[in-house]
Amino acid sequence: MSQPTYPLSSYTGETFRTTPTFGLYRTDTASLITDLDDQFSLSAFTDSACTQAASSAFSITDTKMSLTTGTASFSGATYSLAAGTSEVGIYFKVRSEKLGISGCSRVFGIGQKFGSGAGYLRGGATGAAGGTTTNTLDYGISVRTDSQNRIIACGQSRTTGNAMAHALWRSHPNATLDTTFGGVGTGYQVYQNGVNTGLALATGLVGGTCFNDGCSAMALDSSDRIYTTGFSKNLNGGIQLGLWRFTADGSPDTAFAAAGGVLGSTTGAATGGATAANQFDLGRAIMLDSSAGQVIVAGQSRKPAGGNEMAIWKFTTSGSLVSSFGSSGAVTFGTPGVAGLGGATMDDRGYAVSADSSGNLFVTGISYNSSTRFEAVVWKVNSAGVLQASYRSAASGTGLTGSSNSAGTFDENFRSAALDSSGRLVATGWSRNTTTTGDELIVVRLKSDLTLDTTFGSGGFYRSGTTGYAGGTGANQRDRGFGLIVDRNGKIVVAGYSRDNSATPLVKAMFVRFTSSGELDTTFGTGGYVVYPTAVAGGTVANYLDEPMGLTQDSFGRYVAVGRTKSNAPAQELAIWRVLETGAIDQ
After folding, report:
1. Which of 473-499 are b and which e, b meaning 16 or more Cβ less than 10 Å from the residue's Cβ?
2. Given 333, 336, 370, 557, which residue has the most CB atoms within 10 angstroms?
3. Exposed (0-12), middle (13-18) or buried (19+): which is 533, by Cβ within 10 Å?
4. Is there a domain that residue 505 lies in?
């Protein structure tokens, strides 16, 4: 029989700000230790191999003690984190007098408060690309955290010449911009392919052409390299798909491409191949398939005579289109669209992409129906690019809030989605209640065949009801989900915004968490949700506008969202919010 070891139980509570108490278990029997004749010692380390002592951050008064009913009460264990921007994970070994030392066990991390007690980061009145006051237009759309819990946001920033630029920002875990990022000492990277020039070589205000580049989605690889997708305007006035890669320090990765980015074809992916000023190919979602060495992008492509088709592109991680996928690396799904409308007015868009273990892709988005109203839709596509199944939220003629899909105000959207550990797709967005004309938050779970999972919520979905999280009712209600994750505990977290019931409704940042069965998780925040009480940029009345768009979870379990905020200038600025797993604002 092998010697039993003594790992520590997972610490419960705030994982980085409270002195822990430990339970010790035998790995051979998975039972709580009750041998009160033994004595135990605790040591702290900062690496997973337990070789680097954490003495500078962690001190232990009780170096040896006995158990009390299986609980190690190291009451003298305290920690401190030096002033600065870094965070540290703590690992422990426990030594038994009788049987030796356990393996390493990660219990908690020591982290930084976010935003000097505010719980958010404000980008500032001068934009990353140089816009000031009323000309400032910076907004984050996608967010990830790297191996050091630094926060990376991507989106767009307006220049002083009114061009829009692809922008990246990186923040330390304490909500200060990381001035080592991007190479110019600012904490952000504004991409230009030359001087005042976009990826597709359109230039700022020259010959009537203004460059227009943007990031819509982002993914990080295991080396913290940053892949982004979006669009770039070319010299013909057309919009081409853009795919960029940046090194971990925020520099355009010339090992990926000479300009740090690659373009889709100058002929659009949609049926008929739009060209010149008629082309509009836009990447809205991105994922990395590390096993195949591929980058998968989903979005939309415009047909020559008008109308958008949902599109999927596959690239190698070296930036080449995968020619075996569809037609020269791209597939689209043509007339009619998923919700039934064809011709020049069809409008199918993909906003999120996920892949299951068989390589099937799930693209979540919107599609115009025959009444030219948006329905929330999903496409399931196999690894060769062939459609396997689809879902539309109002196929029966009635939407998720009971409204007719032909009503003039009908509007249902999916904006974010993720697969859970059982391969079920969870999606969020909103549904217009045409009786109240308010927007209700929706969360829907679909089985792998894209039928509703009726074990979730009420008949397969959750709807927030006719009073919003911030109190809005009737036409004031706008509860919209833009970011969704399935967190490390299998719970579903949504970030978005909610309007209140003021005469001029205030638009407030919100986080909502659900159990795996589709109910509000009442252990989170107040009754399952958090509404930020303060506008990040201080806007009031019509300028009170806080809109989270992207969402992720860092290695300490904190929820991080990115979006925009508005000041009274009025300027639209980058905003980043962070919330603890308990639902407390991280301040």
Report:
1. eeebbbbbbbbbbbbeeebbbbbbbbb
2. 333
3. exposed
4. no
Task: Write out pLDDT tens, residues 52-77.
Answer: 887 666 665 545 555 444 455 555 55
Phi, psi of 311 (to 5 degrees): -130, 150
Cα-to-chain-centroid distance, residue 498: 18
State the DSSP string of 191-250.
--SSSSB-TTB-BTTBTTB--BEEEEEEEE-TT--EEEEEEEEBTTS-EEEEEEEE-TTS
CB atoms within 10 A of CB 393: 29
Separation between Cα atoms, residue 334 and residue 342, nearest integer Å: 8
Look at residue 11 in the predicted model and tell me its pLDDT.
34
Residues in the chain: 587
Query: Which two structure tokens, joined as six digits, stand for 184?
Result: 């110019």
Per-residue model confidence (pLDDT) at position 423: 97
Q: Which amino acid is at 371?
A: S
278 φ, ψ (degrees, to nearest 5): -85, -15
Is residue 107 within 8 Å of residue 88, measured between CB atoms?
no
Dihedral in degrees, nearest 10, Cα atoms 496, 546, 175, 580: -40
In a domain, 148, yes or no: no
Tokens for 55, please give them: 């003495």
Q: Using alpha carbons, select from 77, 73, 75 the residue that is nearest to residue 59.
A: 77
Cβ proximity of 446 and 428 under 8 Å: no
CB atoms within 10 A of CB 163: 25
User: Does residue 150 lie in a domain region?
Assistant: no
The total domain count for the chain is 1
The 3 state secondary structure assigned to 485-526 is EECCCCCEEEEEEEECCCCCCCEEEEEEEECCCCCECCCCCE
Q: What is the DSSP string of 174-197?
A: TS-B-TTSTTTTSSEEE--SSSSB
Q: Let me know: does 382 contact 324? Beta carbons within 8 Å.
A: no
Taking only the tens place, the pLDDT of each residue in 161-172 is: 888 999 999 999
Residues 333-351 as b/e (b if ≥16 CB within 10 A, e otherwise) read bbebbbbbbeeeebbbbbb
Q: State how far the Cα of 25 lies from the Cα of 197, in Å rounded to an integer.
A: 61
Single-letter amino acid, residue 153: A
Contact 509, 531 (CB under 8 A): yes
Tell me if 404 sits within 8 A of 442, measured CB to CB: no
- Window from 97-106, 137-146, 299-308 with minimum mean pLDDT: 97-106
Mean pLDDT along residues 114-128: 87
Which pTM does this prediction carry? 0.90
Q: Tell whether 398 is covered by a domain.
A: no
- What 3-state class would DSSP assign to 44? strand
By DSSP bridging, strand 361-368 and strand 65-66 are: unpaired
| First-to-last C-alpha distance (Å) of the chain | 49
CB distance 411 to 405 below 8 Å: no
What residues make up the domain containing 81? 22-110
Integer Cα distance of 130 and 180 in angstroms: 19
CB atoms within 10 A of CB 120: 24
570 alpha carbon, distance to own chain's centre: 27
